[in-house]
Input
Amino acid sequence: MGPRATRVRPGLPALTAYMTDVREETERSQAKGGGWQRTKTERTFDAYGMEATETDHGDIAKTGDESCTVTTYARNTSANILELEASEKTSVGTCASPAARSRPPTPRSRVPRPRPW
Output
């Protein structure tokens, strides 16, 4: 992303703040029995730079282990509340599928979430 704020400083170069984001990451780890397992994660961000969607491709050598997480926010910009999450929904499939992003999860498409208790 481009500069988010700039401030002029007398006698010094302008001070510029940037917002960064990691849109894609690929990792590899040693698999049981030898070889390597590669995983991939892709993200999109909203106008505030907050994560909007995350596609976890899982093991990229396999299909069927993908998941899509969509995060919405309960923002109150007049009170400077930007990061408060309204919902986080995870479903089976990639976020590139409009159905995974828009439909409410069904018991078959819902990814189990660990409970803290």
Observations:
- The chain has a mean pLDDT of 84.
- The longest strand covers residues 36-45.
